[in-house]
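Data deposition worksheet. Section B asks for the primary sequence of the deposited chain exactly as it was used as input, without tags or linkers unless they were present during the calculation. Section C holds the resulting structure in token form. Section D is free text for depositor observations; keep each observation to a single sentence. Incomplete worksheets are returned to the depositor.
Section A, Depositor: J.P.
Section B:
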Amino acid sequence: MAIEPMLSIQENAVVEIDKIKGSRFIGLVFAAKDLEVAQQLLAEVKAEYADARHWCWAWRGSHPDAMRYSDDGEPSGTAGKPMLTVLEGADLSEALGVVIRYFGGTKLGKGGLVRAYTDAMKAAVEACVTEVRIEKVSFRLDLDYSLEGSARHLLEACEAELDSSDYGESVCWRVTLPSVNQERLRREFQELTAGRGGIELVED
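Section C:
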């Protein structure tokens, strides 16, 4: 199975786009592994830009259903959701996007707001530095010495790394591999050991 990489933020970014009818829009993106971290960062942004009118935001976690967003007083659907769409389009995970607005005195209308918040978020996303991150899991394996060679070939096929080994009455390994390959490892390890080997997910 092909590995599905995700992009995470290595270096945050702050970008202000050109004024739109007097309003200032400042886009920011941060690495935020969970919603708690995102909320802490948002509080810091609000404190730093305390004189702004709106602090709209969108957060995207490492799983498709892990997401939150807020229009923060702007008309419904004009800020948070478009910003989340930008994060999704860039394949960013564990990321918080914030767009700060200083109101310029002229209303932009719903369409104008969607474009402004989208453009500010895109500018920040384009300015940040990202890195490819692959979700991984760890297993503890227990097998007979006679199967060690075949098991090593299986690890290679599953792109697993051997983290530690213990040679006692049997071979005991701790391995780490891309999570998308874990079902293959489970299935083929059981076949290799005829169901007599031990395989256990390690919860860190």
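Section D:
The mean pLDDT is 92.
The chain is about 30% helix and 35% strand.
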